[in-house]
Write a structure and sequence with these properties.
heterodimer; A: alpha+beta; five-stranded mixed beta sheet; 31% helix; globular; B: alpha+beta; seven-stranded mixed beta sheet; 29 strands
Amino acid sequence: MTIAFSVNGKDVNIAAEADTPLLWVLRDDLGMTGTKFGCGIAACGACSVHVDGALMRSCSVPVSEIAGKAVTTIEGLKRADGTLNRVQQAWIDAQVPQCGYCQSGQIMAAVALIEQVGTPTDAQIDDAMTNICRCGTYPRIRTAILAATQGAGAVALAADQGEA
Amino acid sequence: MADNPNPDLDVPGIKGPETADPVQKPKKKGFKRRIFLIGSALLVGGGVFGVWWTDSSAKSRAKSLASDEGEHLFNTWVKIAEDDTVTVFSPHIDFGQGSHTALGQMLADELDAAWDKVRIEQAPADLAFANVALGKGFLPSMIGETLAGLLPDAVVGILARSMPLQITGGSSAVRFTGEVGMRNVGAAVRMALIAEAADRLGVPASELTAADSKVTHAATGRSLRYGELAAGAAGRSLSGDPVLKTREQWTLIGKPIARRDIPAKVDGSAVYGIDFALPDMRVATIAAAPVRGGKLEAVDGSPALAVKGVEKVVKLDDAVIVVAKGYWPAAKGLAALSPQFSDGGHSAMSTPAIYAAQDKLRSGGKPDNEGGEGDVDAAFKAGGAKLIKAQYRVPFLHHAMMEPFALTAHFKDGTLTIWGGLQDPLSARAKAAKAAGIDVDKVVFNPMIMGGGFGRRFPDIVQIIDQVAVLAKQVPYPVKLVWSREEELRHGTYRPQSSAALSASLVDGKITGWRTDYVQSGNAEGEVPFIYAIPATSRRHFAYQSNQIDGPWRSVNATQIGFYTESFMDELAAAAGADPYQFRRKHLPEGSRHLAALDMVAKRAGWGTPLPQGTGRGIAIVESFGTIVAEVIEAGVKEDGSPRVLKAFAVVDCGTTVNPLNAEAQIAGGLIMGLSSAIGEQVTLDQGAVVESNFADYPILKLADAPPVVDVHFIESGAKTGGIGEPGLPPASPALANALAAAMGRRIRTLPVLTQAKA
């Protein structure tokens, strides 16, 4: 079947089996690999995207359910002028990623949380940020979310940021 | 150290999965890690000690692989372009540990290169970049320089044969490659640039200074850029050893510099191995025999071929592969199959059976390795000695690297090209060649970014290399083989299931004798130092091998040995009626680095200050990979009985901290991974097969359950540089168990905690 929806503001028409998870349409059909495969059972959150503004784990959403909807992925977070979303910038400022594989999903989850509640409390961060990070970057994820929303808590960098 | 040189060592003998012998195959394992350390150390042989190249063919090949017009390759470590760009080639892969940036800092500092003109690249997976001959030639001096006391003589011969490696592991990048390689190379290239400038300016080298990618003659105000000097300098041979900077002269080492790889990891643009794609590429996925050692007996491929998008079903000796137009149809096709596998005779293998076999071996068997000093039996029998005993158990652990295994391969015109992420690109190449039955020269391996590894990606134990090599030879198109999470969890190369019986004698509140009898596949002696000053100690290793493949898991044997030792220290403190911190103090030498770290962590954690009802503090200290880490965990118990970690403190003495910003992240991440494993993680076996299947039944600690802040403090002792990727992990599990004992008055001796709490 052919399914029409939009990804990062761009209309797409995909010929796919109805049960194909959105994740694999993004990765294999559209070549958008910023959204990651981690577990396939919606347990880890590496595949998190926004569908009509709501956070979803794309490995467990059949593409047929996306028809007519607007999908935002990590590749679509930048502003129109190409600068980073404030959450992405906070992620760099706090030097969050280690292996980095889960961070697309972490950032999508953080953006959804901030869009929903504005300035999240620690308890709201605890409740909302349920994605797995094996490298254990959780303290810096918390720092980055607080920095993006309160302008505080960023890890100080002595050198190098944004040069060359 | 190295009490047992394991005379049967043979490096190429690290067996692949298909040949793993079942049950009770002792020895052969303890050496693996040691070789990994060595591989990294030896690679630093390339280009140091005043010699650029060993032979002209290696030089021309390296140049063709790694330098373009206007770029001048000095050796396999660094090139300088005429526009002043300095490119550092890292022989280590970076899977999140940040060593690329740290290695670049070390070379650039000694080179006096402007940091904004420095790039760091992965060295090509090519023998020219392993510098085989040079490494061999300098082996004796390398051992003298960096590995004194670490190597049994028997290993030296093996080293020479194991040269063509590009291994990353053993927290070795900075402490070996960086300290011995990067710094010396940076200093040597700086010398060459100055010598070239002296000739060009007609002044003595002693009147010249280097800074900010320029050589300046202060007296006349003339200067030449590195880019202008590179062509001439790269052709020079040096006399004399490079002179390294003193600590006070460092401008980049020790500075909290932002990692270079991070921007591409926040906008989705970083391309990991699993993201790689080629035109006409197919995607495949696989199911291997559920019981390790079992074989594929029969499979009817037609249900898979009926799935739209599926193109082919391939049978391997012990697995079935479905090839399709994308991952989803491949996975659907695989799920439609009902393959029949044998159990390889391992149907009786189970978690309880393994523990029972280990208990039997420990109580009646003869140890395979022994370490320690003094007469423990005499200490135990001495008058007035109070004897304390305890037994501990730890399960198999899954690495849970977040990127599932994926390798892309294309066999075309006799050449096999592979793309993906592994901890040793060169040995990955060799393994693929062997599996495909072709010459190693006919394999090209392209290393890619890795979504974690933690020890899982050492090629010798990575089954997917063989699988994709065999698969690629059977199809005319490029093919990406992707493992599902279930496949990885059930066919991992786990941290071994292990158990131990500890005993000690106490006299007047001091330990007079200590014995650790531990059972696991490999020997941990020589890898995890026993840090306490006790008159008589004995550590006895009993080798046991299940049907699983045990692999290095972040910090390797230090995880379980650290758990045993530091849990037991608390039990002894309790038996002596002493405070656990003060009790450890009593057994650490006055003025030692260990004592300093312990005191510092106690101070930062507010040891001894009151805590709310139901919470407790636990302390632990473990030395691993040349680094001492002391940790305090503050924890309580939730209503459901599961642990709640409130605060975490770590004090680290790694000698010198090259990049504090990254080192802090490595220690905090290691601590959290250690807590995660201690709280909920275990791989169990039933009828020879792994029971757990995915993150639903293999719980990884999440943000809400991790300490909100990990207070990490570095002691800049200036001692020999230690590792940073692994040492944060081992103290975490005993510190947690000790905190829970303090909080609830119940000692946890079997991990993970969660099954205990529910039991």
